[in-house]
Design a protein that fits this description.
The structure is a single chain. By secondary structure, this protein is α+β, with helices and mostly antiparallel strands. It folds into two domains: 264 residues, Fumarate Reductase Cytochrome B subunit (Up-down Bundle); 182 residues, Sulfite Oxidase, Chain A, domain 2 (Alpha-Beta Complex). Helix content is 45%, strand content 12%. The protein is built from 16 helices and twelve strands. It has a five-stranded mixed beta sheet. A hairpin with a 5-residue loop joins β3 and β4. α3 packs parallel to α10, α4 crosses α11 and α6 runs antiparallel to α8. The longest helix is centred in the N-terminal third of the chain and has 29 residues. The radius of gyration is 28 Å and the shape is elongated. The two termini are 25 Å apart. The N terminus is likely disordered.
Length: 540
């Protein structure tokens, strides 16, 4: 996994130049007459604390837990990024338009797929590491997303309940010039704490603004950009992703904010260790003053345990991936259904269509499919069976005749991270279900494909009757005003606009209505859920 070298070298050079310039400006400012006057007027550390000194127990616990959460979130986030190692500012994900890529240029090969574009991640960096481990990485990411949000909300609530929020929330504009004093003091490699006043007693102005920004700005933005990548939300409330320009803008900002968290953590550690490590660690680890080594010992044990825990998570992933999948089914899936329910209704303009639409999935290569393709799919029959009043086998002509052609321009969101806008036309699933009449006991539609899935198994996936009944759920036979090509799923492919792309089965050969998706295949709802441990709920 290697970054585009000019970009990486440029970023390193820019950081070095900016750092050197900041140090030079700080020395010049601090030793100037105007700077001395400014510092005298706006002291870095206020002399009177606003709250009782020390860190409450819940603050110390939240501090430790958040550290653990961030290790899990960053490592699993790196793994998720590796499945489509490109970041864009445009929603179309057109190769060559990325502002960051961790992969070579896209080969000019018609058969090249987005899955081939993924890269491997070292096991010490990613969670769980390797290649094509997106399913389990998402499970870890979502589990710790929920813990991160719950802990953050509890911490903020406790701060306001006991009055210690004034340590974090700015109450005067005077903090801004005081923060400049702090920053320039750090820039001259001095500790701005004076007279024994330190973070245990009262944060200095720069600390307060930084902690406020991380807790009340950076963290909420990280959550909101994550939510903006939900197809269920984006296709129901299209204005929401526009807060970040578009879906790919949200994805890019999500990555930048992750880098911000890592940068904050690194700077935070450096300052803690360089401004009185023993006293600082005793304060945050034990909640007491002093120069003893007890706080250092506790901190070292906690850090070692946190990293050991993530490595244990890697081992657990390979040992019991199905357990991890079931854990998120019990915890994450209900939250996802609650947060991202409702019918998708977003339609885009014809002019919004993407100039490039990534190809994904291995096309069918069976003799049966090749014969159908060579005959222009004249002999194709879609088999519909199971819990229906009127089982049927329909030709493409009969499918077109069932209901007027419905066209929609919608945003496609792949689980790997890329997106694209395209026009799809075909038969509404609502009309098909009215024709075959699912029985009262039918709760899911199982869509089988001519194409192979993981391990050479027949590809299939399932959807609830409620999702299939939505106005934008479609059996598509056209793509961008032309007959559907084999590359994009001919003769028929599914569109269910509140789900990620892997659930929109291509090359459909049959639909079976069942009472429970656990009755078929590996029992997880689809071949990617069975073999690659994807989550059944794919609304984000």
């Amino acid at each position: 996994m290697c970054a585009r070298s000019p970009l990486l070298m440029g970023a390193v050079a820019l950081v070095a130049i900016m750092g050197g310039a900041f140090v030079a400006v700080s020395f010049a400012f601090v030793h100037s007459t105007a700077g001395e006057s400014f510092i005298d007027r706006f002291a870095c550390v206020p002399t009177q604390p606003q709250v009782e000194p020390g860190y409450p127990l819940y603050t110390r616990v939240a501090h430790l837990l958040t550290f653990v959460y961030l290790i899990f979130l960053v490592r699993s986030g790196v793994q998720i990024l590796a499945d489509h190692p490109r970041l864009y500012g445009n929603v179309h994900s057109t190769p060559g338009s990325e502002w960051l890529r961790l992969r070579r240029d896209v080969p000019r090969e018609p058969s090249y797929t987005s899955k081939q574009d993924s890269v491997s991640v070292p096991h010490w960096l990613g969670l769980p590491g390797g290649r094509h481990t997106l399913g389990v990485a998402r499970h870890w990411h979502f589990l710790f997303d929920i813990l991160f949000v719950a802990t953050g909300l509890a911490f903020v609530a406790a701060q306001f309940l006991d009055g210690t929020w004034t340590r974090l929330v700015p109450t005067t504009w005077e903090l801004a010039p005081r923060a400049i004093t702090c920053a320039t003091t750090y820039g001259t490699f001095d500790d701005p704490a004076t007279g024994g006043v330190d973070g245990y007693v009262h944060f200095n102005a720069l600390q307060q603004l930084t902690y406020f920004g991380v807790i009340f700005v950076l963290a909420p933005l990280q959550v909101l950009t994550g939510i903006a990548m939900s197809p269920a939300l984006a296709n129901r409330f299209p204005r929401f992703p526009r807060l970040f320009r578009n879906r790919q803008g949200a994805r890019s900002m999500h990555f930048i904010l992750m880098v911000g968290f890592v940068g904050f953590w690194a700077g935070h550690v450096v300052l803690v260790l360089s401004t009185g490590a023993l006293a600082n660690l005793n304060g945050i680890a034990l909640g007491r003053r002093g120069e003893g080594v007890a706080g250092l010992a506790v901190a070292l044990v906690a850090v070692a345990a946190a990293f050991a825990l993530t490595q244990a998570a890697v081992a657990f992933t390979w040992w019991r991936p199905r357990w991890l999948q079931r854990a998120t089914a019990l915890t994450v899936s209900p939250v996802m259904r609650f947060a991202f329910s409702g019918e998708p209704r977003a339609r885009y303009r014809e002019s919004d269509r993407s100039p490039y639409f990534w190809r994904n999935g291995e096309a069918p290569h069976s003799e049966e499919f090749q014969a159908l393709e060579e005959g222009g799919f004249e002999a194709y029959r879609l088999k519909i069976y199971g819990l229906v009043e009127r089982p049927a086998e329909l030709s493409l002509a009969e499918i077109r005749a069932l209901a007027p052609r419905q066209q929609q321009v919608t945003l496609h969101n792949c689980i790997q991270g890329w997106s694209g806008i395209a026009a799809w036309a075909g038969l509404p699933m609502k009309a098909l279900m009215e024709h075959v009449r699912p029985l009262p006991g039918a709760r899911y539609g199982m869509f089988c494909s001519f194409g192979p899935g993981a391990g050479g198994r027949q590809y299939y996936d399932s959807h609830s009757i409620e999702d299939l009944d939505a106005p934008l759920s479609l059996l598509a036979y056209e793509h961008d005003d032309a007959p559907l090509t084999v590359a994009h799923g001919a003769p028929l492919r599914l569109r269910v606009e509140n789900q990620l792309g892997f659930k929109m089965v291509k090359w459909i050969c049959a639909i079976e209505f069942v009472a429970d998706y656990r009755e078929r295949g590996g029992g997880q709802g689809g071949v990617d859920e069975d073999a690659e441990f994807f989550g059944y709920e794919a609304r984000i």
